[in-house]
Amino acid sequence: MTAVAWARSNLFRNRRDAVTTIVAGLIVGWVLYRTARFVVVTGRWEVVRTNLTLFLVGRYPNGDQWRVAVVAIGAGFVAGLVAGQVARRRLGAAIANGTPLPTVPFTDRVRDVVARYWPALTLLLLLLLLARTASPWLLAAATIAATVAGRLLGARTPRRVGWAIFALPAVLPLAVLPFLTDPLGWDRWGGMMLTLLLASVSMIACFPLGVLLALGRRSTLPALRAVSIGVIEFFRGIPLVVLVLMSDVALGFFFPRDLLPGKVVRVIVAFTIFTAAYVAEIVRGGLQSVPRGQTEAAQALGLSPVRITGLIVLPQALRNVIPALVGQFISLFKDTTLVFIIGFLDVLSVADNVTKQPEFRGQGLIAETLVFAALLFWVGSYTLSRESQRIERKLGVGTR
Amino acid sequence: MVVAFGLWLAGNVRANSAKTNIPLSFDYLDQPATFPIAGSSFRPTQSVRDAIVVGLGNTVRVALAGIVLATVLGTLIGIARLSTNWLVSRAAKVYVELFRNVPVLVLVVFAYLAVFLRLPRLEDATTVSGLLVISVRAVAVPWARTDGRGWLVLGILVVAVAAAVAVARWRHRAFDRTGQPAFAGVAATVAFVAVVAAAFLATGGPVDVTAPHLDGRVLRGGIAMPPEYAALLCALALYTASHVAEIVRGSIQAVPKGQNEAATALALSSGQRMRQVVLPQAMRIAVPALANQYLNLTKNSSLAVAISYFELTKVTQVSIASRAPAVPSYLLLMVIYLALSLTISAITNQVNRRLALVER
């Protein structure tokens, strides 16, 4: 279709459509012009450039940043392993079904990766261009190499040991924490690293709690059901801000002085309980979507109630709610900014603080730093939500 | 086990409060607050109870305005998203993806620090054709005020609405009987306007609509919004609108295609198709999800703590800082939020039931 024909059918279908296009075009053009002018001409990005490290890892000591690098490379490797194993299993399933997957040429695969991850890749490139030394480039290259190596290795790992690969992303964050906290302790973490720490630990911790609450809500024991409903509805009814503030000020009253955990752990507890209540409702929806016949068939086979839940009902229920769970985790990722309110040095607080540095004070640079902070979150959240839509399509939830 | 854990926590609270000499009772509510609240007539000598009431009023104010704005904006963008015009649907999509994936707190802080605090001073405020006054001190819009006879205005409005409903019923019945076009909406509007106009003429106009204007260095007329309020409202409305837009789009797409095709076959115009066939059915699907967004918006209004707008949470935070005991304060705060949440879900459940009744 030529450009003219395309424009005629999409922009100038009839007279009203043409007027709409022109009016909308003027507005969009003006917004685009202002945005481009801000990014290229009027925006003073020196403040971001100078404080890039602060944005990413907070006040993590310079001499220990190799630890972060090691973890980044390791994370890339594990992500590659998982992707490789998933691809292997899909291939195996396709062969078993007698419908081998078509081979995709290499250039198409690269194009696919770029189409899927363009925001993350653009951000990576931007960060590298802003960097003043060569080490970020080396780190990026090493991480990409590790990811590719993991992908190749994952595709060659037999299915028998493959389950261990899927357990890695859940177990590893807990294992690397002591390694990362060693020089600083966690109460002085900051930047994007703090955000990722809060989000990932809360995610991993809230999931079992949420599943237990969902099962409790469907339990036949009235006391257990009442407690579960009470906990779920209570924490869904109050704002997260209140919980975060409480974790800072009032949680100390609920524990003996010597048992009271540090600030970061306290706020993680707040995030975990809050998200668990939402996860519980999502999982409950999933449990309700599993047909009764499944339970009855399992009972007919003589399985114990625990096994029915664990082996028959829960796997199907969780599979149905993966997109909703990812959505919840995205909100958790964004909500970690609330620690700004209680004085943590997270990305948002870095964005606020760096405008008060002596060389940048009083220049009104808050727009620049906040846009950069928003960009960091936007890329993470947008990529996750796109991936979740992909999983949704792949699983065919609702169309089967 | 749960009960034992609860008792253990309660015991700890009691022990800690004895140790630190911070009481657990609610007596502090009657103590003087000792802090002022910007943008209200609240005096530091008034009690903490009064401060919390002022905070509750501010929460309700920002939540209600936010819900209205987010619904209107979100519905427009949701419909734009489905437009056959490429530019319009693209722009709507970019809006949704942009605002949905940014933390709402970042939006709130951005709106406050980077937009509303950067506005010109009151002396050289921007005025838009006598309708808006935009300055760092306040953003003012036209507003209606009653001359002390508020109950009279309320009474007139109630009578007018009743008249409009009666006329609409009558026209609907006429339509059912005769099949002639009923113009129920037009007739009801005429009835409403007629009643209001007649009553205002009779009582000599108890309502006074004023546009804001600068009188030297004083802002007169209209209603002035402090930058904290305006920033919070804008950020919450823009953020929630992106979620509402997705809900509206999904709900419209969930209406079976046959409905649209049948409406086309009946030669309804595209506007009639949308208003009379698709949107009413989409609304039914959208209400539970919208209710959730309204709840979220209300709870997100607590983000005001970051920009010092004195709603419930900020008032509680400040009162704790000026020596109100933390545990009872937070308990009270949580109970108030629970009550707000339950109220909103009760209202939306009611709406949901009314809409669902239509279904066969």
Could you give a short description of this structure?
By secondary structure, chain A is mainly α. Helices cover 76% and strands 0% of the residues of chain A.
What are the SSEs and their pairings?
The complex is a heterodimer of chains A (400) and B (360).
Chain A: H1 3-10, H2 15-42, H3 46-50, H4 52-57, H5 65-96, H6 106-130, H7 135-156, H8 159-181, H9 191-217, H10 222-237, H11 240-249, H12 263-289, H13 292-300, H14 305-320, H15 322-335, H16 347-353, H17 366-395
Helix pairs in contact in A: 5-7, 5-8, 6-17, 9-10, 9-12, 9-16, 10-12, 11-12, 12-14, 12-15, 13-14, 15-17, 16-17
Chain B: H1 2-20, H2 48-81, H3 86-100, H4 104-115, E1 126-128, E2 132-134, E3 139-141, E4 143-146, H5 150-178, H6 184-203, E5 207-210, E6 213-215, E7 218-220, E8 223-225, H7 227-254, H8 257-265, H9 270-300, H10 312-321, H11 326-357
What does this protein look like?
The complex is a heterodimer of chains A (about 400) and B (about 350). Chain A has about 400 residues and is mainly α. Chain A has 3 domains: about 5-40; about 60-185, no CATH class; about 185-400, MetI-like (MetI-like fold, Orthogonal Bundle), CATH 1.10.3720. Chain A contains 17 helices and no strands. Chain A is globular and about 70 Å long. With about 350 residues, chain B is of the alpha+beta class. Helix content of chain B is about 65%, strand content about 5%. Chain B has helices at about 1-20, 50-80, 85-100, 105-115, 150-180, 185-205, 225-255, 255-265, 270-300, 310-320, 325-355, and strands spanning about 125-130, 130-135, 140, 145, 205-210, 215, 220, 225. In chain B, helix 5 runs antiparallel to helix 6 (about 185-205), helix 8 runs antiparallel to helix 9 and helix 10 packs antiparallel against helix 11. At the A-B interface, helix 2, helix 10, helix 11, helix 15 and helix 17 of A face helix 1, helix 3, helix 4, helix 10 and helix 11 of B.
